[in-house]
Amino acid sequence: MDPTIALDIPKDTNLIEIIRLGGVLTGLAVLVITWFVVRLVRGTLGRVGHRFAHRRLLINQISTLAGFTIYLTGILLAVSASVSLSREVVIALTGTAAVTVGFALKDLAASILAGVTIILDRPFQVGDRVTFGGTYGEVRSIGLRSVRLITLDDNVVTIPNNKFLTEAVSSWNYGALDMMLQLDFFVGVDQDIALAKQLVQESLTTNRYVYLKKPWMIVVNQVVHENYFAVRLRAKAHVLDVKYEQEFQTDVTERVLEAFRAHGVLPPALLHREVTDVAPKRRRVPGKDGPIGQVPAA
User: Of 62, 116, 134, 208, which has the fewest CB atoms closer than 10 Å, so is most exposed?
Assistant: First the structure.
């Protein structure tokens, strides 16, 4: 045998030699301690975020980064305590077993690397309101394997990290507490549009959740709404804090509808109109009324 190919590898190298039986318990203890420390850090920072609301998103980002770092450190310590990384073991792991394990864990490894990419590239942050694959919600956590969203219906949606590397994600506030919202109101084309716009403006700017330090506007367009020609009044303004999104929308909508009703501004539906100036036309009968297009004699 060629001496350059021959390697000094014991023939009885197996899992018992690779795994330190005495270190397995140490590794498990490290993982348990890691999990406890992460829970403690996130719980503490979560309470701090609720106490200092104006710094809530920043504290959430620190919590995510700290948890990510602690998890990776704990896993590396547990592996180093449980596995003997001698020269012979390193050579053995480059064989078929390493390839098999690599294929089995490729999705997990891809998700972990994607998680690191999300932390560094920051397409969104913890606390952001995002839309991904038709799902809208708040980013609650960015973990080693997945991102968790909380929808407005209080449902938890778990998305693997690697999905965010190939699909588009939209962040509505991108690290800011305030967020632009838009509300649509429809009135008939025969209504007083100036009055309707004024009512929407008053309901919008006097809302307790509106953030007037950023621009707001009301855009007026003529559209087709539910098979009727209508005038759409689209109100755009920033809510003070993303956690008040639903309260803001509800309050503005209620006040606008109440104002419309009090001032007689009607929606775009013919069934709400009284048509009294149109009389039914008698059908013309050829021969009696003369040819079509000819004015009958008085």
Answer: 134
